[in-house]
Amino acid sequence: MTTTVEPGGSSTATAPPVPPAQPHRGWFTAMLRRLHFFAGILVGPFILVAAVSGALYAVTPTLEKVIYAHELRAASDAPAQPLADQIEAAEAYLGDGSTPVAVRPAPEAGATTRVMFADETLPESTTRAIFVDPATTEIRGDLPAYGTSGALPLRHWISDLHRSLHLGDAGRWYSELAASWLGIVALAGLGLWVGRFARSRRGRRDLLRPNRRHTGLRRLSGWHSAVGIWVVLGAVFLSATGITWSTFAGAHVSDLRAAVGEGTPALTTSLDGTAAGGGEHAGHAGHGGAAASPTGEANPATFDAVLAIAQRINVDSGDVEIKPPAAAGKAWVVQEIHRSFPTEVDAVAIDGSRLQVTDRIDFADFPLLAKLSRWGVDLHMGTMFGLVNQLVLLALALGIAALVVLGYAMWWKRRPTRGLAAAPARGVLGRAPWWGIAAVLAVAVALGLFLPLVGYTLAGFVVIDVLLGWRARRTAASGRRDIATR
């Protein structure tokens, strides 16, 4: 309060000057809120489907052991017969002269050996696996097995549901869209949570666990915030690792790793020096499992010989796969397929005619990004730490699904008597400083280039926002004209 002396000696009290408005204040939080809202509403269904199918997939490795116990377990844990005898038993069972494209010896006493054959009636990357009791050479089962993961029918069906909704390559766009936006939505939500935490004094604990005394929209919001902060890091992890499997963004990830010299080493299988294909995603994304009968020498006795050589070189895990040459001039490959911790994916290539090692790769020599990618994939698939890993993934996937449902419930709860709840106010970038606008545009362009489906859908959000704004302005103008004519 200030006092002004008027002419003649009188004085009057005046209010203190009002500080100038801060037009740039709060624009970033408002932008995050609008992004979180629009992405959650429009991409939420895709994230929900991916989360529910992912929750199912998380526990399939354990379910597989129960459902296919007869095929996976031998009748006894007696010493194993030579691989040649087991392979000949599988070939005799088929009786059509087929030779195996791969063999997975029993990894431990009491487990069965898988002798895998090409079958043109099966989908790509799928082989016909004959399960042999290593001690008695009894045939324990005959099932299709998918890729390097060796997924049996149940796990393969759920995996394909999670990856592509059983719609083939076109269906993979759904999972790429969900994986690409999941991390963005989660980080935007984290930003909003941090803003609320910074402003709050008394209710900070309510941001970590829902307050049971709250009701209605406030209770839904409390659950959404509390569940979100507990799963946000896991959601970002699943988004990042899921992107590496995707069609468009995954190619950018591979190119970036190759550009910085951090790609996954490839074993040279050609006897003239050509490297083999494959990678850490083989088996879960359609890149694993031989699908053509070998044209090189695949005598059953040779399997024992090349395995013995590999064990002397660098293969010291029980989980291995032996592949005969897929064509003339190719080497045999013996590769560890142990996906639990500690990771064992060493491999060796062997010239079958001379029984000499022609190449080897060791996981210990992988570049750091290649190791991180391998570990990330195994964690994402629930194989790194067994049942504990699977239960954590199950809880995380169910938490993400719950966030989507809670988000839609909040949207519905905020609706007026008629219609749907309005989105957060538009025009937030208009309140941003020039450097803020430049930073947002730069990030949007970078995301659009690296994550193409994010770019397309983000452009779609902008178009929808512009149309909604145009409609709102037109409706408001029409209302003013109606009032003026009364």
Which SSEs are present, and which pair or pack?
Layout: E1 2-5, E2 11-14, H1 27-58, H2 60-67, H3 69-72, H4 83-94, E3 102-104, E4 113-117, E5 126-132, E6 139-146, H5 153-164, H6 172-199, H7 216-243, H8 248-259, H9 300-313, E7 320-323, E8 332-336, E9 347-351, E10 356-361, H10 368-381, H11 386-413, H12 434-450, H13 452-485
Antiparallel strand pairs: 1-2, 3-4, 4-5, 5-6, 7-8, 8-9, 9-10
Helix pairs in contact: 1-5, 1-6, 1-11, 4-9, 6-7, 7-10, 7-11, 12-13
How would you describe this structure to a colleague?
With 486 residues, this protein is of the alpha+beta class. Among the domains are: 72-101 and 108-163, no CATH class; 265-381, no CATH class. It has 13 helices and ten strands. The longest helix has 34 residues, at 452-485. The two termini are 45 Å apart. α1 packs across α6, α6 packs across α7 and α12 crosses α13 (452-485). Mean pLDDT is 85; it is low at 1-8, 10-16 and 285-296. The radius of gyration is 30 Å and the shape is elongated. The strands form three sheets. The protein has a four-stranded antiparallel sheet with strand order 3-4-5-6.
H/E element string? EEHHHHEEEEHHHHHEEEEHHHH
Number of extended strands: 10
Radius of gyration over all CA atoms, rounded? 30 Å
Strand content: 5-15%
Class by SSE composition: alpha+beta
Count of alpha/pi helices:
13
> Describe the biggest sheet?
4 strands, antiparallel
What fraction, in percent, of the residue positions are helical?
40-55%
Distance between the termini: 45 Å
Shape: elongated
Strand order of the largest sheet: 3-4-5-6
Compute the average pLDDT.
Answer: 85
Q: Segments where pLDDT lies below 50 for 5+ residues? A: 1-8, 10-16, 285-296
